[in-house]
Amino acid sequence: MDALAAGGQPLPLAVRERADGQVVAKVFTEGMSGLLFGGFSGEVWIEPGKKATQGKLYRDKASGKSGSGGVALVLGAGNQVGVVILDVLHKLIVDDEVVLLKLNSVADYCAPHLLELFQPLIDRGFLSLAHGGASVGSYLTSHAGVDSVHLTGSEATYNSVVWGSPTAERTGPPKCTKPVTAELGCVTPVIIVPPPKGTLWSKAELEYQATQVASQKLQNNGHNCVAAEVLVTSAGWPQRGEFLAALRAKLSRLPQRTGWYPGSDKRREAFRAAYPDATDAGAGVLLADGLSPEQALLREETWGLCLKEVPLPAAPDSGVASFLDAAADFANERCWGSLSCTVLCHPASRSAVGDDAWDGFLAKLRYGAIGVNVPSMIAFVVAGLPWGAFPGGTPQDIGSGVGFVHNTFLFDSPQKGVLTAPWIVHPRPMWWPDFTNAAELAAAVISLIAIGGTSQRSAGFAGSLQCLGAVPACALAALRG
């Protein structure tokens, strides 16, 4: 709403330039969301060499150019209905196209709820829903009435759409000549930065960060493109064993989970076969720890309750800076995909390398979203940040996909989003797997958003009082979690 009110060019909270000239715009927290996410900061990094221009579609309209008036086919995700909702809204508002949503057959149970939610758009002809399997999707992608395609799914699905089959040879002109944007998952690394020599994490810090990892693995039982897939640690970190023990202890106290997404049982069996020494770490999670970079198979998502740990070799006198460099290389080169990654970094570790080196580390990571001291899945929730693969995917080598969604500040050339949280967040984050009051807190937060509490626009005196009145309900619900 802020973007539309500003003609597609809402003012970012701040803009800075990195030492190499790359532009970075701060977009989070807005309005009273700072009271809900105290100490958080979200930035959009613009592609190097480009300016932080916004809302090209709306600038063109203001200059008299008409929009495309096209029809976008959205091939919905099967694992998360929230993905479907945001993809539809992005195509409608950011790309100015009406939408034909083809639901994934796994998510067909959501159809009645989506119909109710989107009924005003359906009644006015802006949105239609289609059902069916792969044959329906194939028919729609090739239909002359469809002008563009956006999909959230697998690389195999993308190859079927663009090249005609999952295993088609990717040479010559693609079979599908329409614009296709896609988000295709990632082997998501969680980089655990060791502290400098002489600094130890407290027991409370070990338990807190272990819970961070558990939350990123267990959400939706691991059936997420942002699920933690591999822990990247330092072999020279004296507390590495304590951390893994804290992770096992946390998981063992949580309810048992099972895979529910079609095919997840076969992936779990393949994981057991590949890593016969993997152990049940609790909550249904299989953990294969102590793997060498060569042993870890990191070219495909496990898409379930499986987790790997790779301790990177470290010389006795190596420091934090050396680990950051090695971890960025490992994540970029060894882990398939470029959608998102998580970095857990103690304040002492960041101080040890300094602001410039830390900024350089974030720049080196080739990921479309980076969560610092927060699971990267929360960057997905912050819609002001772009969501998509790091730029560079091609039809011949698509990786995690191409294009961005979300990006409600409508930047024309985003490169990545970086969401940074405090080392320890109080009260307990609502996305933790043992948070017990999520329904009440979610209702309170939605009420605050509905009355404009997270908007940049002034709500006026009466509106501001109403927003302030809604904040205590959020705080109390959070404390009761």
UniProtKB/TrEMBL annotation:
Q: Which GO terms describe its molecular function?
A: oxidoreductase activity, acting on the aldehyde or oxo group of donors, NAD or NADP as acceptor
Lineage: superkingdom: Eukaryota
InterPro entries referenced in this protein's UniProt entry, alphabetically? Ald_DH/histidinol_DH, Ald_DH_C, Ald_DH_N, Aldehyde_DH_dom
Domain Aldehyde dehydrogenase residue range list: 98-256
Concerning SUPFAM superfamilies, the annotation shows: ALDH-like (SSF53720)
Q: Name one Pfam family in it.
A: Aldedh
Q: What is this protein called?
A: Aldehyde dehydrogenase domain-containing protein
What is the originating organism of this protein? Chlamydomonas euryale
